[in-house]
Amino acid sequence: MIPVTEPIITIDHVSFDYVTYTKQSGLSGSWHDLFHRQKQRVPAVQNVSLQVAPGEILGLLGANGAGKTTLIKLMTGILPVRAGSLQLLDDQHPFQKRPAFLRRIGVMLSQKSQLAWDLPPLDTLVLLREIYQVPHDRFTDWLAFLTDQLAVTAQLKVPVRKLSLGQRIKFELICALIHTPEILFLDEPTIGIDVSSQANIYRFLQQLNRDTQMTIILTSHNTKDIEALAQRVAVINHGRKIFEGTPNGLIAQYASAATLEVVTDAPLTTLPAHVTQVADSQYLVDAAALTTLPIDPQHILSVHRRNGNLDDILTRLFSQEVAP
Questions:
Q1: Please, which pLDDT band fits residue 114 given cuts at 50, 70 and 90?
Q2: Which of 39, 142, 143, 270 is the most exposed place for a label (fewest CB within 10 A)?
Q3: Could you tell me if 189 and 107 are in contact, meaning their C-beta atoms sit under 8 angstroms apart?
Q4: Rounded distance, CA 306 to CA 31, Å?
Q5: What CA–CA distance (Å, rounded) separates 253 from 272?
Q6: What is the pLDDT of residue 243?
Q7: Mean pLDDT over residues 234-247, rounded?
Q8: What CA–CA distance (Å, rounded) separates 311 from 256?
Q9: Domains and CATH numbers, the chain
Q10: Residue 171 class from Cβ within 10 Å (0-12 exposed, 13-18 middle, 19+ buried)?
Q11: CA-based Rg of the chain, rounded to a whole angstrom?
Q12: Between β-strands 57-61 and 232-237, what pairing exists: parallel, antiparallel or unpaired?
């Protein structure tokens, strides 16, 4: 009998609204607002339920303003839960920010930096060592491993302002990992960096998850991040969860009728039914109308499902209201 693993994160019907105030224009409007300020509630997360297993990599997908980052802030205790309940590890109140809880999570927010601009990254990391009370020997060994894996050992003593964007992102990641958390939260971890640095971060996070069973919660607009790392995804749209499952399950559920893109080693002499030529040796095949591919396999160089592209599916999902 396979033992049932307790979730490391449990989100149960959680909601959160931001409170904003309207501002009227002109002097008279400012005078009116001084005595009759209009308050407005903006729903950011609406009735979201989600569970994450220990050692899992979960990708959170959503358009700008969909509620992904707000959900991360609720889980990490940056924001309080307005309705519903949320439990991380064995703590039901992340917003209380108990030291024992904070030592078990690591957070990297793309719009917030832990690094001091005029100091080398080593100074910030030494400060974090003291804050998290990491033993000196373990800190030295772990830092050497992290900087070696992310190829930034030579930049440890270089002022942050002189580092490239990719190097700064890697040191932000090291800051989030320096105390070896059990859960790592990454909000847009590869934004703006080159493909080589992205590949380095993917490989490192995959190895980290495999070797330490660290749970990773990842948000990203770059679907390459999700495809490379996420074992499961949750799609958030207008504050609501509209999908939860595997990346392949998302494609299967929301892809339109199957269209195959076929590339051959030479142009076809005759065009079979339900096949459309788009270039000399490139064809679109209406797979929904066929049971077998009407092209000789000996001449096929590649076959791709054209509308199974995750970017296309997400663009379609986020451009319209989708019922959960």
A1: very high
A2: 270
A3: no
A4: 58
A5: 29
A6: 93
A7: 93
A8: 13
A9: 9-253 (3.40.50.300), 256-318 (no CATH)
A10: buried
A11: 24
A12: parallel
Contacts 24+ apart (CB under 8 A), 232-235: 232/56, 232/57, 232/58, 232/59, 233/58, 233/59, 233/60, 233/61, 234/50, 234/58, 234/59, 234/60, 234/61, 235/61, 235/62, 235/314, 235/317
Specify the range with the lowest mean pLDDT, choosing from 108-122, 242-256, 304-318: 304-318
Q: How far apart are CA 231 and CA 57, in angstroms?
A: 5
- Enter the tokens of residue 231: 């074992």
Q: Sort strands 9-21 and 39-52 into parallel, antiparallel or unpaired.
A: antiparallel
Q: Residue 222 corresponds to which tokens in the numbers above? A: 């770059």
Rounded-to-integer distance, Cα 321 and Cα 324, Å: 9
The token pair that represents 160 in the structure block: 């942050």
Asked if residues 163 and 155 have their Cβ atoms less than 8 Å apart, the reply is: yes
Res 307: pLDDT: 60
